[in-house]
UniProtKB/TrEMBL annotation:
PANTHER family: PROTEIN BLI-3. InterPro entries: Split_barrel_FMN-bd (IPR012349), Stress-Dev_Protein (IPR052917), YdaG_split_barrel_FMN-bd (IPR038725). It holds the Pfam family Pyrid_ox_like. This is Pyridoxamine 5'-phosphate oxidase family protein. It comes from Bradyrhizobium diversitatis. Residues 8-152 form the General stress protein FMN-binding split barrel domain. Gene3D superfamilies: Electron Transport, Fmn-binding Protein, Chain A. It comes from the Bacteria.
Amino acid sequence: MANDNAGDVDRVWDLMKKIGFAMLVTRDGDKLRARPMSAYLDRDANTIFFLTDARRHKDDEIARHPSVNLSFADAGSQKYVSLTGTAVVSDDRAKIKELFSTPAKAWWDSAEDPNIRVLKVTPDDAEFWDSPGTVISYVKMAAAAVTNTRPDIGENRKVSM
């Protein structure tokens, strides 16, 4: 059941921005594969961009199965987003130059590298978990265990994007 609350959609974008890195999950035949990626968010375009390398398997996997999952996690502050969407890989050189930054320099010498591709993910829906933090969550869980109640450890919502 999705929630169309604009505030929840904003919260998803805020959490993704704060976390910054996502595990990109693609389908490789019958198996799922995940790898960490640096996310570039464009809220106005309702798009998450990544720079990827044409020599890696994920581009082929996305061409065969464009439905992907992005999992953003900040375990230290107990904030998480799981997003499903549709991915497309392109050789948009202008977008590559626009997105090329310090994280990309760990993988390529320059934005001119012919192996760089843009991965564009258009979100379908998301779910977020936003907790007050590890210590408070553990205290609330311990109290709930003692009182035989369910702990209130933050917000959890499903959101249509």
